[in-house]
Fold this sequence. Notes:
The structure holds 2 protein chains of 2 kinds.
Chain A: H1 2-16, H2 20-53, H3 59-70, H4 74-85, H5 100-124, H6 129-136, H7 141-151, H8 153-168, H9 172-178, H10 188-197, H11 201-231
Helix pairs in contact in A: 1-11, 2-5, 2-8, 3-5, 4-5, 4-9, 5-8, 5-9, 6-7, 8-11, 10-11
Chain B: E1 6-17, E2 20-31, E3 35-39, H1 46-53, E4 61-66, E5 69-70, H2 75-82, E6 85-88, H3 99-103, H4 105-109, H5 114-127, H6 143-156, E7 161-165, H7 173-188, E8 192-197, H8 202-206, E9 209-214, E10 217-222
Parallel strand pairs in B: 3-8, 3-9, 6-7, 7-8
Antiparallel strand pairs in B: 1-2, 1-4, 4-5, 9-10
Amino acid sequence: MGFIAESVRKALLLILSGSPDVVSAVWTSLVVAASSIVLASLLGVPAGICIGAGEFPLKRILLVSLNSLMAMPTVVVGLLVYALISRQGILGSWNLLFTPAGMVMGLTLLAVPIVANYSVSAVRGADSRIVSTALTLGATRIQSLLQLTREVRFGILAAIIAGFGRVISEVGAAMMLGGNIRGYTRTMTTAIALETNKGEFAYGLALGIILMGMSSAINALLTVVQEKRRCS
Amino acid sequence: MLVTSSIYELTSVQVRLGSRLALDVESVTIREGCLHILIGPNGSGKSTLLSVMAFLTKPDHGRITFCGSPVNWSHKQVGHLRKQVTLLHQESYLFSGTVMANVGFGLRMRGVDQKEVRGFVEHFLAQVGLTGFQERDARALSGGEARRVALARALACRPQVLLLDEPMAHVDQKSAEIIEELIASQSQAGTTIVMASHDEHAGERLSSSMIRLQEGRIEASDHKRV
């Protein structure tokens, strides 16, 4: 009990004193997660809207595939991207391995199915008259889909927040692709794993408290957005 | 007797919804500048016929000409035709946002300047008796007000053909009267109108042509102004 209390005290001191290692890990986590979610949104949101609103052959297979990809283990994603960006990989000449860019690549791949799937759900749950109303008022197909996006914006926002929640707390792919280099690719999650193994429990706990705070804030935001979605 | 040219000609048009034959029309002609009323019970194919005329539903079989030109259902042609025809759905959907954003939607899709949009919106809201409603939340309107906003939105597109799916159903007396007066005035102004209705007397009041539908087929039609 004394060990835990002492660790919590040290962890809070580390946070309050603004320890450079803690700040660096938090900053790297935020930058990598934010970059990944921006890219994942650019790919996943349009894909989700087109899949959700469109009628085409193989749609069901595509939906099942997206669902399967959501459940893909993060280390498998890490392994696939590692194969692509390692020296022998087809993108080996880009020197992305053990860089934040390499981590962004892996985390983007993890987030795309989540963002796309939630976007599909938002579109499928939307009123079926949105697109036909827009079309009959003279909108083109693209304009009608943009209007649909506007109408389901809270659902789309929920998709993006859910994706962010996934990438900020990810450890497997971040460790494999970033290499956990101090001050460069060390994120909160990879630092927690490493420092706890080294016996630096207080340091891991400090990052854990920050990560928990962020996760709680993300969940609170998600709840607010979903509430708005129900009301809109 | 006034003779007008045909704007729509539908020949052997069939629409299947799943395994059900929802529409099986041998021949229908819609005359330009006339008001046609589609009469029939629920499930008789009125909404499906309007959806075909609005170029939202492609028939499984048959031929349609619009203004004398055959409809080939290419994206380009359909996009062009939808700018000339506007459908007011039975249960109108108002987009989230203000009344101004809703009524101006069709105009914005046609590239009308924002300043002009404001003027048109004010004009058409006045026509439906909703002056000063521009900044109201569209989702907070009563059923009758929402229907009138949807009608103003359709009229603001200044369509060549106005398709109305039971516009007076489930609205208050005042809204129904305003909508009916507006339909009559639009018809007199030369807009081609096709309106689905359950009201047998609407045809007499509006001096229109009646097309009776039953189980997707046309039972009878009379053309008073043809």
